[in-house]
Amino acid sequence: MTGHHRARRFVWTALIPALAFGLAACSHDPNSTFGAHSEVGRAQESLTHLLLILGGIVFVVVEGLLIYVLIKYRARPGGPEPKQTHGNTTLEVTWTLIPAVILAIIAVPSVRTIFETQAPAPASALQVEVIGHQWWWEFRYPEFGVTTANELYLPTGRKVNLQLTSNDVVHSFWVPQLVGKRDVIHKDAKMANHLWFTPESSFVWNGFCAEYCGTSHSNMKFRVFTVPPAQFETYIAHQKTGPAFTPPAPDTSKQAVAQAAAAPQPQPQPQLASAAAEANTGTWPHDELPAWTVPETPLPAGLTISAQEGDPARGAQLYKTGACIGCHTVQGVSPGIIGPNLTHAGSRTTIAAGMYPNDAKHLALWIKDAPAMKPGSLMPPMGKGLPHTMGAFDDQQIADIAAYILSLK
Amino acid sequence: MATTVAAPALAGTRHKYESGIWSWLSTTDHKKIGQLYLYTALAWFIVGGIEALIIRTQLYGPNGRLVSADLYNQLFTMHGTTMIFMVVMPLSAAFFNYLIPLQIGARDVAFPRLNAFSYWVFLAGSIFMNVSWLFHAAPDSGWFAYAPLNTRTYNPGLNMDFWVIGLQILGVSSLAAGFNFITTIINMRAPGMHFMRMPIFTWSAFVTQFLIVLSFPMITVAVTFLLFDRFFGTNFYEIPAGADPLLWQHLFWLFGHPEVYILILPAFGLVSEVMPTFSRKPLFGYPVMVYSLILIAFLGFGVWAHHMFAVGMGPIADSIFGITTMLIAIPTGVKIFNWLGTMWGGSLRFTSSMLFAIGLVCLFTIGGISGVMHASVPSDMQQTDSYFVVAHFHYVMFGGSMMGLFAGIYYYFPKITGRFLDEKLGKWHFWLTFIGMNLTFFPMHFAGLHGMPRRIWSYDANQGWNVDNHISTIGAFILALGTLFFVINMIRSRRNGTVSGGDPWGAPTIEWSTPSPPPHYNYARIPTITSRYPMWDVKAPRLTETVPHTKEGERKMGVSVAGKETGEITTPSDIHLNAEGAHPSADEPVIVMPTPTIKPLIATIAFVIPFIGLIWHKHAAIMVGGGLFFLIAMVAWLLTPVEPEH
Question: Following DSSP, what letter does each residue of B245-299 receive, concatenated?
Fold first, then answer.
């Protein structure tokens, strides 16, 4: 094959991937680091733009030279021995200095941005504590006394200062559409990392753990809800209140117990069907979630549950007397701190750290066999008869507990 | 003064074990050891490649369920560990072993038995690490195994026990070889081979050995701390006892960054050998190419924390490491330009070897650009730990190291076996690899900038990553097909390849003056070196007439070589008095080579036994017994002379 054909083939070989990449780039990118929605994110992104432009120029020049050389200097049969150059000091100095200049162009704004974005946060910033666990996220608002999990509500237009600590291994807090990541390393708050930024628009954002942290690293997702300040106030006010569902005091008369055992009567579950109801909690309406924040994780094979309608009152009883209280907090009901705070779990959009939608079926399956739903989960199964189970709940009882949790809006 | 071309086979000592399995098990011949490294590393390349194909198949579409999360985590850990420690490093070692003595005009390395020991220990370590699969407990904390995920508290099973011990064993192999090659290059160069006349591959190997010798102790310390934590209850990394996870990260990356230069410099050296030959021009800017190797190695010790930009070291540390990382781009970029300068004005022959060398220039440039992007810390806050960095390091590791190593394999296969690799199959290998590699890794830049974290077992639909992952997986299978062509080529050409002769490419350096394959003793007479391109001096003087290598230069460097007039030079170690106590005449040189011995292999087995005892429930008897066995094996080895009585 002659050199000419070879060169042409080379160019076509480059074009096909380029088209493919163009295709890839055009697909919808809901987690893109481009178009970042905070001042810090945009500062980081403007450097990325600079790098892409300079990198693009270097690419075109170097690869262009390469292609030129390959075509022009291919061996021709019967051609003379090539002219023997083996060095050229001027050239070598030039092509050492030009990259140095390009790097200086990158270094100056980079260092400036480092110092700007890592300056200590102002005292007026909203303090939020982020605690990484295997494999879920705990969020605390110390100035409000609020603890929640896996969903982070932030007011737009106000700087937030995240204090990042880990309960166990190294994790990394990353919301690509908002700001660059920061690792979550130490347990001691004195050694914590801090990350501050100002959310600019009201929306829902996907968050990921970005440091490999064990079996369910991929399943350690979270959601950030940046909401108008008024809605944030409503949200915090609601989170400070106790659980939305307090079961009536149990009627312990023999008659009532016999009646309950004979014919279980599930009460209707409180639903967040109306925006008005949701407005009371300040949470994001479930029917206004963008598609890419609604998880589609398939269920594990072979895990089923025969009951889905549950009675929250019965579920509350089962919860209070079950192993659940050892790991979970429901304000005024249970003190456990090993697992996520469930006081307002009913109004969350997902369960299992962004893995499944928060609905009766998924929640019941989760309670029944969390490790099957989430590999390596430290929450043991609760279903009767399952290996390593910590509970002996049958499917109906599990549905009841799920109904109770869902009622905790 | 022309070099003497090797005479036909002379009376060397003939060994009992010239052929057969035993000759391989007992070899101390650097050429055989080089081949052992080559074939073993290529076998692990297939294993690591299969691990990659499973990963890519799992990630083909959203919510893949080909493998469990647990198995996936083992696969990506072993893929990285295998490719780095059991493929690229030993492939480089294959070339160090095969080429260094030949290129410097020596007959073997300084410590031939230690050389064999290095290989056997490498083989033992790589097998040890992979035996974990049989226990369904392959290492699973990632190839850089951050603490505290690597500790018993968070990873109680056998997985990381295999990793910690396997790595300790592999480290010994590289360290021993490092000392060996440094000694060889400093002490055993042929007369007239000043450092600035050394072939550029030997230079890259030389610098790499210093990187190894200075950086491996750091991983040894890091891993020893972990080993003691896991087996003997210490608390270097145990969080409940108050340890700081960053200790591991710093120790690891103090090793880990020089390690990546260990992985690339030999490939650079091979490209620098291949390109001048197939451009019919000397390497452009040889002195700068040497200085840039040294500068890269030196600066490489000052950038480690660029793997830790998201860790929160503070703005001063971030800025310093960002700047040093940018600085190292300068000597690296200079090499790219020098290669372009080598080809510029040349007469380019596009053999398979040359295509791979050109491939490195093309693809390493891309990897270098994404590397500079990582150097800008605020931008890196989005890029790091995403698929963007996965794209970056595969461009430099595959597009860089592997392409360079393939260039070296196609170039030196004739020297090693006496036969060419088939050029047609080689072209298929190259194009499928080039296309497949770009299809696999280029979309990862996009996936990363579109928010896809790395090391995730599966991803949900609607995240915007589907198309990138589809293309990546298709590319991976095209890459695999290319590798298949290569494997077929290697197998067929060993038996049926076209016979090549001593200097099939018209190359400039002295290894091409030997027959293919070279005799056991390499050179009948150790050559005298008078230039950087001795073979071109003899065969194509026009190519080197402008390269400085005059007698004046020799005088300036104070080299005096006895017997210049006759052109027959022997270094003292080659002169053996004959029975009458007189120097043998030129007609009857006696070449004494190291005796083959099984002792390095025995010592390796003895070396590994205590580690087996350690992982086997800390079995004290096996550990102590193995230790004693090793002691005895070492004493027996050290008391045996290297060469027969003469």
Answer: THHHHHHHHHHHHHHHHHHHHHHHHHHHHHHHHHHTSPPTTHHHHHHHHHHHHHH
Q: What is the pLDDT of residue A265?
A: 52
**Model-level pTM?**
0.91
- A151: helix, coil or strand? strand
- Here the tokens at position B527 are 């050559």
Tell me, what's the pLDDT at A11?
A: 56
Strand arrangement of the beta sheet that strand A203-209 belongs to: A151-155, A222-227, A203-209, A171-175, A179-184
All residue ranges of chain B with pLDDT < 50 are 1-14, 16, 549-587
Selected catalytic residue, list B140, B229, B238, B259: B259
Closest to B466 (Cβ–Cβ): which among A27, A83, A193?
A27
Give the integer Cα–Cα distance in Å for B277 and B536.
10
Partners of residue B482 in chain A, C-beta under 8 Å = none
Residue A95 tokens read as 């092509």
CB contact under 8 A, B468 and A13: no
Partnered with residue A386 across adjacent β-strands are none
pLDDT surpasses 60 at A43: yes
Q: How many CA atoms lie within 13 A of A340 on its CB side?
A: 28
State how far the Cα of B83 lies from the Cα of B129, in Å rounded to an integer: 13
* Least confident piece of the model among A304-318, A358-372, B69-83, B303-317: A304-318
Whose tokens are 């369960």? That residue is A351
CA B556 to chain CA mean position, Å: 36
pLDDT of residue B537: 86
CA distance B591 to B550: 31
CA–CA separation, B514 and B517 (whole Å):
8
Tokens of B323: 């700047």
User: For residue A82, what pLDDT is reported?
Assistant: 82
- ipTM of model: 0.90
Cis peptide before B517 (omega within 30 of 0): yes
Distances B446 to A32, A45, A184, A262, B158 between C-alpha atoms, Å: 9, 14, 25, 60, 37
- DSSP string computed for B9-29: P--BPPPTTSSSHHHHHT---
Subunit contact B372:A96, Cβ cutoff 8 A: no
Query: What pLDDT sits at residue B570?
Result: 33
Chain A neighbours among B 274-333 (CB < 8 Å)? Answer: 279-288, 310-312, 314-315, 318-319, 322-323, 326-327, 329-330, 333
3-state class (DSSP) for residue A180: strand
- What pLDDT shows up at residue A260? 57
- Six token digits for residue B346: 């040349």
Tokens (6 digits) for A189: 């708050």
The answer to whether residues B408 and B337 touch, using CB atoms and an 8 Å cutoff, is no
Instruction: Give the type of residue at A59.
Output: F
Give yes or no for B544 touching A (CB within 8 A). yes
CB-based contact A31:A177 (threshold 8 Å)? yes
Mind giving me the DSSP string for B135-186? GT----STTTT-TTTTSTTT--SSHHHHHHHHHHHHHHHHHHHHHHHHHHHH
**Closest chain A CA to residue B424:** A1
Instruction: Tell me if B443 and A24 make a contact (CB, 8 A cut-off).
Output: yes
Question: Residue B282 in contact with residue B543, Cβ under 8 Å?
Answer: yes
A33 touches chain B (CB under 8 A): yes
What is the spatial distance between Cα B76 and Cα B139, in angstroms, rounded to a whole number?
9
pLDDT at A391: 84
Assign residue A282 a region: left if phi > 0, alpha if psi is -120 to 50, beta otherwise?
left
Residues B170 and B126 sit within 8 Å (Cβ to Cβ): yes
Q: Residue B344, preceding bond cis, omega within 30 degrees?
A: no
> Nearest CA to CA, how far is A304 from chain B (Å)?
18
Distance separating alpha carbons of residues A373 and A366, to the nearest angstrom: 6
